[in-house]
């Protein structure tokens, strides 16, 4: 039995229509590129949200576990809108993991716990980016002709590159210190009490700022140089480790 509200059904139908129009306008190469991006998107979102759930669970909050979020099943973590945006616009999000900071153990404050849980998602994306970059250069070092000797090699090459960039992009985007992104909770933890109260009282303004950045595409403009710098630095470091000049 479907439990979507009317508004949600209409929104999902609209997204499906937009997706069909986007795919129809892509051509064969665009569709192939989209398919090669899909695994990276699924991995990035799934592990990102799982990391939030895992961190909360380790801190003593069983809310994610009770809601079935402590797993690596993509269907448990995908948000239709965020998935659509990440796939087609390359800026998106997963289904938010609900937590109850009051359940955290008393070794840390609720604010610190929220910051740790929030940071766990982007951190996981950066770890994945490192892991897949290592795999990318490992293959290049010990099977240098693999990527260019066959169609399978070329597909593996594109899958790895896309997965690396998607994970870096999702990690960086979510560290923007604006609600509802993870960065806002991390940033809030380090603010003085009065500053926290002021931001909470004016939270709607920051939501509007976020929406404006998102809709106008300025969010992409802001994070793109950071994503490029991180990816370039990561590739440089790992390439040196594997002996590439």
Question: Could you characterize the architecture of this molecule?
Answer:
- The chain has 245 residues and is mainly α.
- The chain has one domain (27-241).
- 75% of the residues lie in helices and 0% in strands.
- The chain is built from 12 helices and no strands.
- Helix 6 (110-142) runs antiparallel to helix 8 and helix 6 (110-142) packs across helix 12 (218-241).
- It is globular.
- 29% of the residues are buried.
- Residues 1-7 have low confidence and may be disordered.
Mean pLDDT: 86
For the sheet with most strands, the description reads: none
How many domains? The number is 1
Distance between the termini: 58 Å
Measured as a percent range, the helix fraction is over 70%
DSSP summary, beta strand count: 0
What is the ordering of alpha helices and beta strands? HHHHHHHHHHHH
| Number of helical stretches of at least 4 residues | 12
Strand-residue proportion? under 5%
Question: What's the gyration radius in Å?
Answer: 20 Å
**Alpha-beta classification:** mainly alpha
Which residues form runs of ≥5 with pLDDT under 50?
1-7
Which term fits the overall shape?
Answer: globular
């Amino acid at each position: 039995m479907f439990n979507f509200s009317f508004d949600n059904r209409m929104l999902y139908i609209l997204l499906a229509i937009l997706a069909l129009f986007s795919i129809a306008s892509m051509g064969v190469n665009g569709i192939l590129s989209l398919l090669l991006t899909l695994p990276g998107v699924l991995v990035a979102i799934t592990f990102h949200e799982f990391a939030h759930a895992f961190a909360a669970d380790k801190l003593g909050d069983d809310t994610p576990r009770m809601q079935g979020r402590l797993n690596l099943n993509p269907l448990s973590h995908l948000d239709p809108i965020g998935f659509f945006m990440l796939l087609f616009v390359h800026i998106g999000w997963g289904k938010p993991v609900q937590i109850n900071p009051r359940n955290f153990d008393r070794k840390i404050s609720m604010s610190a716990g929220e910051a740790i849980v929030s940071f766990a998602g982007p951190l996981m994306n950066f770890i994945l980016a490192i892991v897949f970059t290592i795999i990318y250069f490992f293959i290049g070092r010990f099977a240098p002709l693999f990527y260019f000797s066959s169609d399978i090699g070329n597909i593996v090459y594109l899958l790895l590159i896309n997965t690396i960039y998607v994970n870096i992009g999702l990690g960086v985007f979510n560290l923007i210190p604006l609600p509802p992104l993870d960065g806002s909770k991390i940033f809030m933890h380090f603010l003085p009490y009065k500053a926290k109260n002021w931001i909470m009282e004016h939270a709607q303004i920051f939501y509007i700022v976020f929406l404006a950045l998102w809709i106008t595409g300025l969010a992409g403009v802001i994070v793109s140089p950071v994503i490029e710098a991180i990816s370039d630095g990561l590739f440089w470091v790992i390439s040196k480790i594997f002996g590439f000049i």
